[in-house]
Description:
This protein is an alpha/beta fold. 39% of the residues lie in helices and 17% in strands.
Amino acid sequence: MDLTDITTVKRVLSRHGFTFSKSLGQNFITDPTVCPKMADLCGVSAGAGVIEIGPGCGVLTVELAKRAAKVVTIELDARLLPVLAETLDGCRNVEVVNADVLKTDLAALIEEHFAGMPVYVCANLPYYITSPVVMYLLQSRLPVENITVMVQKEAADRLCAKVGERDSGAVTVAVNYYATAEKLFGVGKGSFTPAPKVDSEVIRLTPRREPPVAIADEKRFFSVVRSAFSQRRKTAVNGLSSGLSLSKDRVAAALEAAGLPVSVRAETLSMEQLARLTDALFE
């Protein structure tokens, strides 16, 4: 079954009474070059396991199954289960789990299904949950080799930006704290059915063994980061004062103690500067 052939896909979906849900961000890949390239670049090999999120009709799942020892694919939409039962019928090394990935204990899933195997994550993520899923994967500190995902191009720019660059935001800092991020290749909106309004990008996140900076209290650090970036068009003083419920004088004093100008904007701060600022704010 050619799952990149639009006529074939529509016939299978129609047979099971499936219609696309905008609220779930369902856009299925129909460009035959995309999924083999994703599966190759994620690096999975014959002795490895893969977690996939949001298989759709199974087009990427099939490519992963060709390369891996086992694939566990997590699908929220129960309407797709009979579709996947048909499209993945020949893939004996695939298990479909009907669950919300954000409510799934992925560490327990890895222990249950992939004991002793190197594990990878590879997925075409729905745009509306990109950041929550990426952060859940990273903050869970899963024992995975890398996380290769397709996301909206704008999200890729933010996730893969360097901390301190104009494109950086709070999520950039968080991603760079837990992993190294790189863009792999672009995917045009015409590669999907139905076609989204924007282009996509495949990125790879490789978890770090150690964070790039020493942080005494991660919770405080990320509260500072979120607050600092909360009012992007204003100086960091405004965001920090509002987000942390501190007086502007106290925030200004902390900036000076950290060796930073009071007029600084969050997007120009490096990871090290944000760490120093956190220490100064909570000394």
